[in-house]
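Minutes, project check-in
Item: structure for the 192-residue chain
Input as provided by the requester:
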Amino acid sequence: MVVGAFPMAKLIYLGIRQVSKPLANRIKDAARRSEFFKNYICLPPAQLYHWVEMRTKMRIMGFRGAAIKPLNEEAAAELGAELLGEATIFIVGGGCLVLEYWRHQKQQRNKEEEQRAAWNAMQDEVGRLSLTLEALQAHVQAVPSQSALEELRAQLQEVHAQVCSPGRPPSTQKAPATQAAPATQAATTCEK
């Protein structure tokens, strides 16, 4: 996937360069025709470029302190127009790269915000489910357990056996206050 991205970036760069070349050519033509543009925009960068280039070449060759003769006006205007055209192409290409970087950063921020929102929603859901689980656990603990039900059944059968025993009449047996209703049900069952 990375291999496919590199040629695409190169293709986009070449496309931008081709689109910006006519713009650079128009700027060069305007620089050659206008005296103000030529004198104040093209000549100073061209003379500076010539001075730095010649100074570097002379130092490489071992000449120190030699005076550098400035370019004539026509050559400086031509060099300045070329520099301006290349700077235009570079600025357009760099601007496209900066815009692409900003777009990518915005997409990353949006993606991170979506992930953060999804994470917060999941945390809220987990909290809600935790509260529901606690409520269900409290409800389950409030309901008598199976062993308690078995114990109550055993007590009921014991009371039933006492009530229905042949040695005692049902009217003389006394049931505990908490078990009065089951005892009366058992007594009526025994009489039938």
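Outcome recorded: The first helix runs from residue 2 to 33.
No further action items on this chain.
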